[in-house]
What we know:
Helix content: 55-70%
Strand order of the largest sheet: 1-5-2-4-3-6
Amino acid sequence: MPTWPVVAACLLLSGLVPAKVAADSSASLRSHASQLQRQNESLAANSHSALLELYALDSQLARERAHIVALQIETAQVRAARAAAEQRLAIARRSLKAAERTLELRVQQLYEQGDNDPLAVVLGASSVSEAFNRLDTLGRISDVDRLVLAETRQARQSYQRQTQQLASRQRSLASLLDDASRTASGLDQARSSRASYLASLVAKRRLNTSAISSLESQAQTIEARARVVAPLPVGGSVGPGSTITVSATGYSLRGRTATGAPVGWGVVAVDPSVIPLGTRMTIPGYGEGIAADTGSAVVGATIDLWFPTLSQARDWGRRTVTISLH
């Protein structure tokens, strides 16, 4: 059910709102503007907090991305080192096989020549000097072969350890890189969410600022009109502060009143010679109203009360009531 300020705002359009009604409407508009202003102050505080959080997320995201780049660089270095170690290991394996094959061939050759037995070497020599030389050669060959085999095996073991260590480090880096990527993704989502929230706060503040400007402009217009509206002459009619007993009839019609204002709850049709247009009144059983309409059948101490539906108007019917004028 429309309240009195709504009716007053409608009547203001026709220039017939009394000064007190205009002041009430102006106060209501300014009160709403004050509420929006307080809301904007709260939004500004929330925006400041959201902005600080956004800066913190940007900083965390930048650090995490730098960490990811460092991990990617180290991963590339470890991958290259592992590839080189695997290549050296392959070479060492081939060298070991070659050394083992060479030793195998040499032992076979010694057996075939019968030089593998030191006693046979001594007995087969033509002189003592020749025997010592051949034994010395055979000993040296054995020492060299053993040394080559030992060094080759040691190199292979070393390269195997390096390869395993590098493979383990590469797996560790891959795990760290996955964790860092997930962390960066989470930070990025949090940043997007906070940025959207901040944008919504800024948009709300802009809407409120526009609404505040509109409300203050309307309030100023109402106050300006209230200052220039002169009170209507009473003549032989009743005035504010008095009461009058009238015959009140309910009606329900759409459109505009005789004053040009739209019909609505609280619009009362009167005889202007008895109740001046613009007069506020209290009607028992109906509520607050304002004289804003006339009619050919409204003559003397009679009034018509507007209802939103025909059934409500019929329920009211015609009553004799004593109304108070303000």
